[in-house]
Write a structure and sequence with these properties.
Layout (H helix, E strand, L loop, with lengths): L8 H11 L36 E3 L18 E14 L2 E18 L5 E18 L9 E4 L3 H4 L5 H4 L6 E5 L5 E5 L1 H14 L9 H23 L13 E9 L4 E17 L2 E16 L11 E18 L5 E18 L2 E19 L1
Antiparallel strand pairs: 1-9, 2-3, 2-13, 3-4, 4-5, 4-6, 6-7, 8-9, 9-10, 10-11, 11-12, 12-13
Helix pairs in contact: 1-5, 4-5
Length: 365
């Protein structure tokens, strides 16, 4: 893992945990406790992912979907389970990671433009990570974290997880399910930095600039991608012809790369389940990668060249046509990049990274 030369070692670890590992909620620590426990959903509720195989299939010719938009009500509370499996290879190092999360959000406000503001909380986090480095003959420990374990929650090595648990984060999405604002990440930063300052083994007290960078990283590369999983793309305008639309998004993939995706969506079936029309949407994902500017505080500043890249994926999403609420979402994405790095007085280095990831979002009762 490349780190910034101008930041002390522990701060590098803190920033690296959030910039890279927390994007996929993977711990930057070495704990050998029990593997993640199965997370049980609450009882009760109405339509969930398990109901989607029931009901009556409707003729697409008889259904007109004029405007598919998010239509939630204030004080409404929604719970989701997110499971994910990922494989990342960077040069001679590989990482296999799975995670199991429970999230909950409550609708605070819906304004006149249809923008919906929710308070999002991570209620449970369980993750299991295996890292293998062919260049290192000593085996690396398997990393496991489970928020049900009170000992792990209070362990300073897991501050990056404990700081997320039950911390309310403001998320605003527009009526087309586009995340447009994230607030509240400052509270996460405060919990992490105060924990570092209090722990004698860590012995660090990040300055205000570090805190600002950390907050930007959390908001841009941690919270926003997770929130967008819960609110997959809806058409940017009313569907005037057929049941298909295309949507373009821009985001940060990691600290080196930005991505511009162009995804095509099509409603392939509609079922009547418990009095509600549920649409199955099939998507093809693609996009263009580009290099992000090297931060000013990196010194000496390297020169980066993007030599090649690939990005593709598929998704199958089930939504409630009335509310725009996601019932189920399974997405698979493959991406890779070859980057050439050079710095004054140092030999050029080629960084090759490939990643496969599958995540599933399920509405809970």
């Amino acid at each position: 893992m490349e780190t910034y030369r101008t930041i002390p070692v522990v701060k590098q670890l803190l920033l690296a945990c959030f910039f890279t590992s927390l994007i996929f909620l993977t711990a930057c620590s070495t704990n050998e406790s029990d593997s993640p426990k199965e997370i049980e959903p609450h009882a009760g509720g109405t339509i969930t992912a398990s109901d989607t195989s029931q009901g009556v299939t409707l003729s697409l010719d008889s259904i007109k979907v004029a405007d598919l938009r998010l239509n939630l009500q204030p004080h409404q509370t929604v719970r989701y389970r997110i499971t994910s499996d990922a494989n990342l290879r960077q040069d001679k190092m590989t990482m296999d990671r799975n995670e199991d999360l429970i999230t909950e959000f409550t609708v605070d406000n819906v304004d006149n433009s249809g923008n919906t503001t929710v308070r999002l909380k991570f209620k449970k986090i369980a993750t299991d990570t295996k890292i293998n480095d062919e260049a290192n003959p000593s085996p690396l420990p398997q990393v496991r974290f489970n928020s049900d374990d009170s000992t792990q929650r209070s362990d300073p090595k897991f501050l990056q997880f404990a700081s997320l648990l039950d911390t309310p984060i403001g998320i605003t999405v527009n009526k087309r399910n586009r995340v447009i604002r994230v607030t509240g990440a400052g509270a996460i930063v405060d919990r992490v930095t105060s924990g570092l300052a209090a722990d004698k083994a860590m012995g660090q007290n990040p300055n205000e600039l570090d805190k600002q960078r950390l907050q930007q990283a959390i908001e841009g590369t941690v919270i926003t991608p997770k929130a967008q999983m819960l609110f997959p793309s809806l058409p940017d305008s009313a569907i005037t012809e057929g049941l298909e639309w295309t949507r373009t998004e821009r985001a940060f993939l990691n600290e080196l790369l930005a991505v511009k995706t162009t995804d095509t969506f099509r409603i392939t079936s509609i079922r009547m389940v418990k009095g509600k029309k549920l649409a199955t949407i099939e998507a093809k994902l693609g996009g263009v990668l580009s290099l992000r500017p090297v931060p000013d505080h990196v010194n000496p500043k390297p020169t980066l060249k993007l030599k090649s890249y690939n990005l593709s994926g598929t998704a199958r999403i089930i939504v409630d046509l009335e509310t725009g609420l996601t019932i189920h979402n399974k997405t698979t994405v493959k991406n890779g990049a070859t980057i050439e790095l050079s710095a004054p007085g140092q030999p050029a280095k080629t960084l090759v990274q490939n990643q496969n990831q599958t995540f599933t979002v399920e509405l809970l009762p």
